[in-house]
Every structure is written in C-alpha cells, then in structure tokens.
Specification:
single chain, alpha+beta, Rossmann fold, Elongation Factor Tu (Ef-tu), domain 3, Alpha-Beta Plaits, 5 domains, seven-stranded mixed sheet, 17 helices, about 30% helix, about 30% strand
C-alpha cells in the first residue's frame, strides 16, 4: 500500500555512542538511492557530522536531517547525536518523528546504554522499533540482547526475525517470522531469497509462536486463533503489528550489520509498511485540528544570510515563501540533506524543512498563519557541569555576552548564570564534551577566545565563641569631625540561622536614629571575615556607646560598627564552612555498588538507595556530598555506567571543614585575594 499521498513520513535514528547509528543512517540513504556511495565515519565522508566539532571529535554533535525517497515514497531521516551529553537535540527529534529506530549494540551487557531513550519513548508513547546492529562483531548475540533490552522496556518487545548462522557461528542471513521466508545476506547488495533451512525450522516455529503471543495480548482475533492452535494469515499479523506499533503497544526488533548494509533494506521495508502517517502522529500529539498550514519548530540555528533559521515539521497544509507563520514572515523554505539546504519555495504535509529568517520562533512551538501555540515539549535537562568563563580580552566581554545568548538560543541544554558571591559567569551544560563543543563554537563562529576555570566553591565562615568588643571611630580634619563610640556583643548562632542584630541601649547613650547605621557597618564587615570568606550565623548586640552632638553621624556609626566586627572576628574562633549538597544519583541497578564507592571517595555520606520510580532496572542513591567534590563527578559516574548514569544536586547545609582540606582552601583564598 502506498502512503505517499498522505504526506512525507519521518523516522529518527537514536542510539548510544558507538552503536553504528550514523553508519545505519548512511546505509539507509544509500539503499534509497539518495547517495551514490555510502559515507563512512572513518573516512569522514558522511552526509552528517559535517560540523567542525563533529569532524574533530569523530562523534555526532548535532542532529542531521536528510530528505530522501524509498520505493516511490518520500521520507525524512534524522540522525541524532549518540552522546548522552547531547540528548536535548535527540529528544526534540523524537518528539516530531512518526517513528523512532533505537540502534543497539549486539551485546547484552551494553543494552542499558539505550535505557534513557527507551524510558523517554515509553513515557511519551512514541512508536519505536529496535535495530540490533553490528551483527558482524565477534560474540554478537541477538537472543541475549533481546532479553536484556526487554528487561529495560515497559513495552513488550516482538522479535521480527531470527538469524541464520554458518558453521562458524557467523550470522549470514535471517528468517522473517511473519512471512516465514529466509534471506541470505550479500554484503552491500540486496539479499537473496533462499529456502528456509531445515536445521532451524524448529527455532523459527518457537520464535514465531512467541511473536504471536505478544500480539495476542492486544488482538482478540489473533488470541482466539492462538488458543485454537490456528495459524493467522501473514497479512493479519502484519496488520496487527502496524496497529500495535502505532499505539506504542509493542516494539518490533530487527537486526543487521549496517556497515555492510545487511538487514538495511529489510528495515526500510518495515518502516515503509508500519510507520504511522503524519496525520496519525499529529493526532497522537494532540495538535489542534483545522484548515490552513500548521507546522512545529523543533530546532533553531543561525544560518548565514538566512539569519535565524528553524527546522520544522509541517503537520498540515502547504507552507510557502513569504507566508506569515506565528510572528515571522517566512524568508525561505528549503529541503535538507545534511548541512546542504536546497530552496524549494513550498512544502507539504509531513515534510521536514528549513525555514529562513524566523526571528521569533521557538523550539516546540506550533505555528499557524499569524499565530503560535505552546505545546507539551521536553524541559531542558538540569546542568551537570560548569565552567567559569571570561573573554580573553576585556574588550570582548560585550561580544561574549551576545555570542553566549546565541548559543543558548540554539541549545536549550546550555545555560549561563552569574554567581554574585564569586563574581563569575558560569557556562553550564551536560558534561565536559558538551561544554568543550560550546567553547569550540564560540571560537569558530564568533571568533572569541575565552579563559576558563573551575567554578569557585561558595565557602563561608562562622565563629565558635562570643566576645565583647569596644570600638571608637574618631576623626578630626577641620570643621565637623567624625565620632562614634559603641560596645557590641558578638556571638555564634546555630547553623543556618543567619545574621541577627539587636540592641539593649538605654538612656539614649546611642540615639535611635544611629542604631541602623551600626547594623549596616556590621553587615558590611561580615562580607569578608578573618579567613577571607563571608561570615554567617552570627548575632551582634549593641549594648552601650556614646556620641557627640556635633561630630556624630550615620556615617561615623557605620564606620564604628564595621571596625568593631573587624577587630573582634579574629578572636571569635573563626571556622571554615563548606556547602554540602543533597545528591540523588540515578544508576542502572547493576552499577549501584560503583555509585556508592564514588560517593564515599568524595567525602560523601550515603543516605540510602531504592528502586528508581518508573525506571525498570534502575536505582536511586541518596547522599550528602560537599560541593567542592562534585567537580568531574558526572564524568566518573558515566565512565562507570556505560555513559548513562546521572545525578541531581541541591544545596542542603553548611558544614565545618577542618584539617588539611581547610588549610588548602584558606591558603588558596589568601593567594586569590592578593592577586
């Protein structure tokens, strides 16, 4: 059945770094006749990964869109970044796709690498199928990988085919469990139809029964036939699979070796037969019905003369150059093949296009003629890494601010914040790779060199004993002088109670109108204590003093208040405090012991762990960890969890820091204040 009259369909390819996702993308394009030869990552001849950062690192750093045509039907394929640090783009692409292909390694111990993707797809009920890639690798195992993936998926997986192996155990072809036909692979060429091998006929019958049982849970007709030991017709099975996939009830599983185009045409045909239509996807997303053009922006970027451009999926009607959509007049409509865009003037339902000069459009917005509408869209992930940055040349600070705003507009997973207590601008992201890509883009696109440093930890200090301090400020320089005389009691407060000021003045020895000035001076002095850090959890009580009818003033009493604190604090037993964060680590269960070791190695206190709600096979580890120990922790967590572990952190309390660690912090602060 041809779907072409119903619009262009869209498939997003997602998977962990190293799974061969981009190779599959290139093989699909080559099999469709879009490219004359299949590009390779090794030779850097791929349609995608053309950005300088991608070429330099050998990884996908941005989504790659390619319009193509397979068996007389129009398609858009989106190759998404594999790094978990670049997941924001991947989520955006999955949200607008009709179907998602999850590319997995053929090793069961690496199945967990796609767990966050499966979780996102299940949560949003996005139709998806799995392609187990790299079946040419030694020790590749379809069945064990299938079971490992099933343990992570909320949806039942349905194995669509089983492998044919030679006498050496190498996979040489497949048997389709619906049609019960067998094919022998020919590297980089179409497969040959062969008789079903007798040696694995029993395996085929057993696995086909498993497929039918999975479908029977959602199809009464197939259920009745299975119970009556009848065999459903292939067309009935195909129809049931397509319906269940459309509703995200089952997840079909295919396999192959994309590097040799083995299994690629079979995957293409499954996409062509089973992928939902654009109108079905729009209904699933709850997009408004009506007439006239409607599209959804899922990525914005700067594009030379086209200015601020938008990648968008057209859900309804025809979009043309010059139309007003949302608040923007469309400058151009172009088709896409990697980084190459071709003006086409207009585009229709289902197409993914680049729209030029879209100054106001935002990712996730649905645009119609003269109107825009916000719809459900993934929130940007919380930052997990940060760098303090500043322009190498002070004259470039304004330019840096503009360039950062542009970066943040294109990548919502990046953010900046101004740390008022340290005076630093922090660039925040999902990890070291994410931040380094951003810095590289600042250099290549804006011509900016920046200096970076680890963010300064917000240490504080407090006092451990009370003192009474007398302070007099007196200055005579002709005319009115300056005079203020006070006695204050300074004492520690409980942790977290902050600063408190009061007075016990009687008899007007310090006029009431001067008392607030004493408080103001004390607060100013507490901004830098004996150890060089802001002082917290202190009470100051003004108990006595004197004044001069002519020379006293607010300014004089403010000076006296500051002087009293500065003189008293060294004798109050200063104590260094470090911020301690409440940290929740999300970890695949098999790696939970490693997470516990990470916590204890960073002076952390384990609070406990439990199963992570809604995440099959995952745990949450709760801990208290000093803020200074969080630097680089996300890299360590990912290195111990196949790249998928993550954490959230929030301030919990301040805690005393003593010993060698405290000495090092105090010495570093002293050096910084000298600079």
């Amino acid at each position: 059945m041809s779907h072409d009259s119903h619009g262009t369909r869209c498939a997003a390819l997602v998977g962990a770094h190293g799974s061969g996702k981009t190779t599959l993308f290139e093989s699909l394009l080559h099999a469709a006749g879009t490219t004359d030869r299949r590009g390779t990552v090794k030779e850097r001849t791929t349609v995608g990964d053309a950005a300088p950062e991608a070429r330099a690192r050998g990884i996908s750093t941005e989504m790659t869109v390619a319009n193509c045509r397979f068996m007389d039907e129009d398609w858009t394929l989106i190759d998404c970044p594999g790094s978990v640090e670049l997941l924001s783009d991947t989520r955006a692409a999955m949200c607008v796709a009709d179907i998602v292909v999850v590319v997995a390694d053929p090793f069961p111990d690496r199945a967990v690498a796609v767990s966050p993707l499966l979780r996102f797809l299940d949560d949003r009920r996005i139709p998806h199928m799995v392609f187990i890639n790299r079946l040419d690798a030694p020790e590749a195992h379809v069945r064990a990988t299938f079971h490992a993936l099933q343990a992570l998926s909320d949806r039942p997986l349905a194995l669509r085919e089983i492998p044919i192996r030679d006498e050496h155990g190498q996979v040489t072809g497949l048997i389709d469990l619906v049609s019960e036909r067998a094919w022998r692979w020919n590297p980089n060429r179409p497969s040959d139809l062969i008789p079903l091998p007798e040696a694995i006929r029993a395996d085929e019958s057993r696995e086909r029964g498993g497929l039918l049982e999975a479908l029977a849970d959602f199809d009464d007709s197939i259920m009745e036939q299975v119970l009556d030991d009848m065999t459903p017709a292939p067309q009935e099975i195909y129809g049931s699979l397509a319906r269940d996939l459309e509703q995200d009830l089952v997840v079909p599983v295919f396999f192959g070796a994309a590097e040799f185009e083995n299994g690629v045409r079979r995957l293409w045909k499954a996409l062509r037969h089973d992928a939902p239509l654009p109108a079905t996807t729009a209904a699933r997303l709850g997009l408004p019905e009506g007439s006239g053009p409607m599209l959804q922006v899922f990525k914005t970027f700067q594009s030379g003369q086209a200015g601020r451009s938008a990648l968008a999926r057209i859900w309804r009607g025809e979009v043309k150059d010059g139309q007003t959509l949302g608040q923007d007049r469309v400058g151009s409509v172009s088709s896409v093949l990697g980084r190459k865009s071709t003006p086409k003037g207009s585009a229709g339902p289902g197409e993914v296009v680049v729209l030029g000069r879209m100054a106001q459009a935002r990712a996730g917005e649905v645009l119609t003629e003269g109107a825009s509408q916000a719809v459900d869209w993934p929130e940007p992930p919380a930052p997990l890494a940060a760098l303090a940055i500043r322009a190498e040349h002070p004259s470039d600070e304004a330019k840096l601010s503009t360039a950062l705003a542009r970066l943040l507009d294109e990548d919502p997973a990046l953010s900046t914040t101004w740390a008022a207590d340290t005076g630093e601008t922090l660039l925040q992201g999902q990890g070291d790779i994410h931040l380094q890509i951003a810095l590289s883009r600042l250099k290549s696109e804006a011509g900016l060199s920046v200096k970076t440093a680890k963010p300064t930890v917000s240490y504080r200090e407090t006092i451990s004993k009370a003192v009474t301090q007398h302070s007099r400020h007196k200055k005579q320089s002709g005319g009115h002088g300056e005079f203020a005389d006070i006695v204050v009691e300074i004492a520690p407060r409980a942790r977290g109670e902050g600063f408190a000021f009061s007075d016990r003045i009687t008899g007007g020895v310090v006029p009431k109108n001067y008392i607030p000035a004493v408080q103001k001076g004390a607060e100013a002095a507490l901004q830098r204590g004996t150890l060089g850090f802001p002082v917290v959890d202190v009470s100051v009580v003004l108990t006595d003093g004197s004044y001069h009818a002519v020379d006293s003033s607010d300014f004089a009493f403010q000076k006296a208040g500051a002087k009293a604190l500065q003189e008293a604090l060294p004798g109050c037993g200063p104590v260094l405090l470090e911020p301690v964060m409440e940290v929740i680590l999300s970890i695949p269960s098999e790696f939970t012991p490693r997470a516990q070791r990470i916590v204890t190695a960073r002076r952390g206190q384990l609070l406990g762990f439990d199963a992570k709600a809604g995440w099959k096979g995952w745990d949450e580890v709760s801990a208290l960890i000093p803020q200074g120990e969080l630097d680089g922790m996300i890299t360590e967590i990912r290195s111990q969890t196949l790249g998928v572990g993550f954490y959230t952190a929030g301030f919990d309390h301040l805690e005393q820091l003593a010993g060698r660690e405290a000495d090092q912090v105090i010495a570093a602060r002293a050096e910084a204040l000298k600079a």
